[in-house]
Amino acid sequence: MRILLVEDESTLAAQIHASLVGAGYAVDIAADGIDGWHLGAEEPYDAVVLDLGLPGLDGLSVLRRWRAAQVNPPVLILTARDSWTDKVEGIDAGADDYLAKPFRMEELLARIRALIRRAHGMPAPELACGPVRLNARTGVATVDGAAVALTAHEFKVLDYLMHQPGAIVSKTTLTEHIYAQDFDRDSNTIEVFIGRLRRKLGVDVIETVRGQGYRLRPPPPSPAASATA
């Protein structure tokens, strides 16, 4: 999952960036509203953390421009303003959630996870596909209850596919959502990650759709299970 962080306070931005990266997200940072507006309008993000008090263009103006242009990733407003009128104004501008400074990083991460789940119609904290389970909070993947060791990029690929059950996801889309903007992207490595995931998961949940990409779906029930049902 790829996150846009728009925050002008450099120390706080570095702390949030480190926490998001540590949680497995690819993160782009903008230090002012103008850069934030352009990045959000041009790049595909799974969620945005947006400060209100930004130089160049304030956060509410950035948000209103995105929504007017049908740029609709879930947005968490982050601000030192804590009055109920500011909260109402932010929500009315198109924000999905609101977090006032100071805050704990654990709460920020929990709110980001919830925003992404809701955006994909997945209210449960644990994602599931057949025997495969993925807990975004702990970063643990399991098959039939047994933990599976994944590298950071394998986790990112599986996480994105688990949020798109049944949908065909191209290599280009996967590349855009698991790497930050400044990363040296290579869509061919997606095939490597998919191959590793198939070996590690040991079940046929990732389908290759020739010429289009990959699709995550539960394996069919075994004949024995069908006969018993």
Topology, please?
Elements: E1 2-6, H1 10-22, E2 26-30, H2 33-42, E3 47-51, H3 59-68, E4 75-79, H4 84-93, E5 97-100, H5 105-119, E6 126-129, E7 132-135, E8 140-143, E9 146-148, H6 152-162, E10 168-169, H7 171-178, H8 188-201, E11 206-209, E12 213-216, H9 223-228
Parallel strand pairs: 1-2, 1-3, 3-4, 4-5
Antiparallel strand pairs: 6-7, 7-8, 8-9, 10-12, 11-12
Helix pairs in contact: 2-3, 6-8
Number of helices: 9
Q: Could you say how many structural domains there are in total?
A: 2
SS-based class: alpha/beta
Distance between the termini: 37 Å
H/E series: EHEHEHEHEHEEEEHEHHEEH
The name of the CATH topology of the largest domain is Rossmann fold
Spatial ordering of strands, largest sheet? 2-1-3-4-5
